[in-house]
Specification:
Elements lengths: L4 E5 L2 E5 L8 E6 L4 H11 L5 E8 L3 H11 L3 E4 L5 H7 L6 E4 L1 H9 L4 E4 L7 H9 L3 E4 L3 H17 L2 E4 L2 H9 L8 E8 L9 H5 L3 H5 L8 H9 L1 H13 L7 E5 L5 E7 L4 E5 L5 H9 L13 H4 L13 H12 L3 H17 L5 H15 L8 H23 L1
Parallel strand pairs: 3-4, 3-7, 4-5, 5-6, 7-8, 8-9, 10-11
Antiparallel strand pairs: 1-2, 10-12, 12-13
Bound molecules: NADP nicotinamide-adenine-dinucleotide phosphate.
Length: 409
């Protein structure tokens, strides 16, 4: 990418000059204690002179947050759980790091003036903090796909209004971003999201009935947080990514395909009207897409295993099986029906996944209860503002919690 290239999102195009000079780049990592957060800090730690850490946030993991704040000399460290404020403050005694806690402080962390913000809080809890970064026109590296599932139209509108630069971190969307010709968008025939198929790719439904949380989080190719690992096992993750792709690339649902690719080498593809198909490939390591966003608009080195296609040997592809993994069909239907359905689906899925991880419901109950929650609350108008999103999210959580209780009884 050269000087004066353009940073594009589905919402528009924005001039973005090559980053120059030796001034350190100020960065904030929302969700710094998670899988994406620690991978981000791993990259930053390899070239500390280049970055100045403004804020780091966690939900409950005070020990790791305080260790990170000390290591990176962060100006602010925020823990989401207000009850942990005292522990965080004590852990930061003698450092120059300010401590804060609670949902408002998370938003304040994102509102602080950092050039680059990694949005890696899991779930809809990441929406309001991420919007704060968007609203001050920051460069936002977006890992938190739930923002786009629960509030996609609103989120992309805010990106356009405030001239924020949105860089997708999800490996599939990052891959598409790298090969998507925004100047000839009308010449894009399809985008093709690849999916590993998760740990139960070859399992039949009978076996999945008794799948345990430990089995579900044991992803064959990627090391990730618990929620996204379960989402991968149900294939709800690919559904969420389908909605995410629809918003980031402004592509209609019928121009988005999903293809199972067990090796997770081809991270996604863009097919053009002339028959060309462009793909981005690499070993499955999130530090590659994170580095793409951290270095943007230049490429930076990432300490990942190099792709050796000769050693990989065979790349397989197959169509998804909607009968064994109904979540994909459910999300397609939800996107088609529109209205509040995606917001409801996202909230219900968070509740159902948490219940499964707590061993209160079975693996197959996850998609079934999400489906029932969507049916119970629909039709409902699409949210037009943040308050609408939060209201719908609350209603869906309450409805799905009731269904979980009934299923667990
Ligand atoms: N992991 C991946 O490879 C990957 C790939 C693509 C996309 N993503 C997306 O990136 C996001 C993060 O995933 P992850 O795997 O890194 O998750 P994770 O390991 O579970 O980490 C989640 C982070 O968010 C914090 N957090 C959790 N609940 C919160 C709340 N209510 N308020 C504030 N902070 C909260 C956690 O803090 P504590 O540590 O204190 O709980 C942690 O820092 C998800 O949206 C996921 O879909 C992840």
């Amino acid at each position: 990418m050269g000087a004066d290239t353009h940073t594009q999102t589905g919402a528009g195009t924005r001039a973005h000059p090559r980053r120059g000079g030796d001034a350190p780049r100020s960065v904030t990592v929302l969700g710094s204690t998670g899988s994406i957060g620690t991978n981000t800090l791993d990259l930053i730690a390899r070239d500390p002179e280049r970055y100045r850490v403004e804020a780091l946030t966690a939900n409950a993991n005070v020990d790791l947050l305080a260790t990170q704040a000390r290591q990176f000399n962060a100006r602010l460290a925020v823990v989401g759980d207000p009850a942990r404020y005292g522990a965080l403050k004590d852990a930061l005694v003698g450092t120059g790091t300010e401590a804060a806690a609670g949902p408002e402080a998370l938003k304040e962390a994102a509102a602080r003036p950092a050039d680059w913000v990694m949005a890696a809080i899991v779930g809809a809890a990441g929406l309001e903090p991420t919007l704060q970064a968007v609203r001050r026109g920051a460069t936002v590296a977006l890992a938190n796909k739930e923002c786009l599932v629960c509030a996609g139209d609103l989120f992309m509108r805010e990106v356009a209004t405030h001239g924020a630069t949105l860089l997708p971190v999800d490996s599939e969307h990052n891959a598409i971003f790298q090969v998507f010709d925004f100047e000839q968008k009308a010449r894009v025939h399809k985008i093709i999201l690849t999916a590993s198929g998760g740990p139960f790719r070859t399992w039949d439904r009978a076996a999945m009935t008794s799948a345990t949380p430990d089995q579900a989080v044991a992803h064959p190719n990627w090391s990730m947080g618990a929620k996204i690992s379960v989402d991968s096992a149900t294939m709800m993750n690919k559904g969420l990514e389908y909605i995410e792709a629809h918003h980031i690339f402004a592509m209609p649902p019928e121009q988005i395909d999903i293809l199972i690719h067990p090796q997770s080498v081809v991270h996604s593809m863009v097919a053009y009207v002339d028959g060309s198909v462009l793909a981005q490939l690499g070993t499955p390591d999130m530090r590659t897409p994170i580095a793409f966003t951290l270095g943007w608009p230049e490429r930076m080195p990432a300490p990942v295993a190099r792709l050796d296609l000769g050693a990989v040997g065979t790349l397989q592809f197959e169509a998804p099986d909607d009968a064994r993994f109904p979540a994909v069909r459910l999300v397609r239907d939800v996107l088609k029906s529109g209205g509040a359905a995606p917001t409801i689906l996202n909230a219900a899925n968070e509740v159902a996944v948490a219940a499964f991880l707590d061993r209160r419901i079975g693996f197959l109950d996850i998609a079934a209860l999400v489906d029932r929650t969507v049916s119970r609350l629909q039709p409902r108008a699409a949210p037009t503002c943040l308050d609408d999103v939060l209201d719908i999210d609350r209603a869906a959580r309450a409805a799905c919690t009731e269904l979980v209780a009934a299923a667990a009884a």
